[in-house]
Amino acid sequence: MGELISPARLRAVLGKHHLSLRKKLGQNFLVDGNIVRKIVAAGNLTPEDVVVEIGPGAGMLTAAVAAAAGRVVAVELDRALLPVLAETLAGYDNVLVVQGDALEVDFDRLVEEAVGAPVREYKVMANLPYYITTPLIMRLLRGGFHITEMVLMVQLEVAARMAARPGTGDYGALSVAVQYYGRPEVLFRVPRTVFFPAPGVDSAVVRLIRRGKPAVTVEDEDLFFTLVRGAFGQRRKTLANALAGAKVMPGWTRAAWEELIRAAGIDPRCRGETLGMQEFASLARAVSIRKNGGQPDLFT
Ligand SMILES: C[S@@+](CC[C@H](N)C(=O)[O-])C[C@H]1O[C@@H](n2cnc3c(N)ncnc32)[C@H](O)[C@@H]1O
């Protein structure tokens, strides 16, 4: 496997299968053994671990993960890569390659098929296809899967957004979602030169440990996330203006929002980007009470 990790070897194996890489599918493959080793080390893998890899590509990372973990399920969208993977992973009998769309497959079911029994916890490791990074992370977090930990290579800018604190320019809906479900840690930066072909941006590897329970108590998660998206939808507006403008609640005017936000203990003139997780939770609680006919003073 080691010999695969160079641009020349990758070109040779792709050439043999008459393949060229598809930019549209985010096909920037790792060609640096050191980075592959660092990603695998970040997973703290043992033979007990079951790992889902998203987008195995030509199998560079897959092989290294397979050497350290007990079982690997690799989900690749591009059917044309399957013969390449069959060749590069021939030496590993603990890998199941599945052709499918990571935005649609049931990861729990695939893991169960691979292991032959339901699995209570597994990890995700991936050099993510950049064109779907955010929806994919949201699905991994909100899809109800038994994922305990993820090690993800993402664009540097996405890594910063995942770990951003309130009041900073990087803080947004992705930060709230990631930190609601987990504890993100940006581990190291990855220069664009370690990919073939080199993308236009640098990347970073992020480890995300799932929390036992979400960071704050929220009764209606859909409402919570609708409010979060509304608050960040128009960042330059005040919170009340942004929520009214985003039509988060049909028919609610700015004045109604101002009153409700105040009743939730928040200054309605602030911007969404200053709100911490707890404040979004208070806001969701206030909206729930109001929707159910309660009075604002019930929740001050
Ligand atoms: C950045 S490459 C990573 C390849 C390989 N893991 C590596 O590190 O060299 C992303 C991979 O994801 C695959 N991919 C793109 N969209 C996908 C999707 N919706 N579901 C599963 N795989 C996808 C691409 O075909 C490509 O192989």
TrEMBL record:
Family, per entry: Belongs to the class I-like SAM-binding methyltransferase superfamily. rRNA adenine N(6)-methyltransferase family. RsmA subfamily.
Q: What is its main location?
A: cytoplasm
| Gene Ontology molecular function, alphabetical | 16S rRNA (adenine(1518)-N(6)/adenine(1519)-N(6))-dimethyltransferase activity; RNA binding
One cellular component GO annotation, for this chain's record? cytosol
UniProt-listed InterPro entries: KsgA/Erm, rRNA_Ade_diMease-like_C, rRNA_Ade_Mease_Trfase_CS, rRNA_Ade_methylase_Trfase_N, rRNA_adenine_dimethylase, SAM-dependent_MTases_sf
Q: Where S-adenosyl-L-methionine is bound, by residue? A: N28, L30, G55, E76, D101, N127
Q: Which residues form the Ribosomal RNA adenine methylase transferase N-terminal domain?
A: 35-212
Reactions this protein catalyses: adenosine(1518)/adenosine(1519) in 16S rRNA + 4 S-adenosyl-L-methionine = N(6)-dimethyladenosine(1518)/N(6)-dimethyladenosine(1519) in 16S rRNA + 4 S-adenosyl-L-homocysteine + 4 H(+)
Q: Per UniProt, which keywords does this protein have? A: Cytoplasm, Methyltransferase, RNA-binding, rRNA processing, S-adenosyl-L-methionine, Transferase
Supply the name of the protein.
Ribosomal RNA small subunit methyltransferase A
Any idea what job this protein has? Answer: Specifically dimethylates two adjacent adenosines (A1518 and A1519) in the loop of a conserved hairpin near the 3'-end of 16S rRNA in the 30S particle. May play a critical role in biogenesis of 30S subunits.
Concerning NCBIfam families, the annotation shows:
ksgA
**PANTHER family associated with the record:** DIMETHYLADENOSINE TRANSFERASE, DIMETHYLADENOSINE TRANSFERASE-RELATED
Q: Which Pfam families match?
A: RrnaAD (PF00398)
* Keyword RNA-binding appears in the UniProt entry: yes
- Top enzyme class: transferase
| Subcellular location per the Swiss-Prot or TrEMBL entry | Cytoplasm
- Gene of this entry: rsmA
The organism's taxonomic lineage, starting at the top: Bacteria, Bacillati, Bacillota, Clostridia, Eubacteriales
What EC number(s) does its UniProt record assign? 2.1.1.182
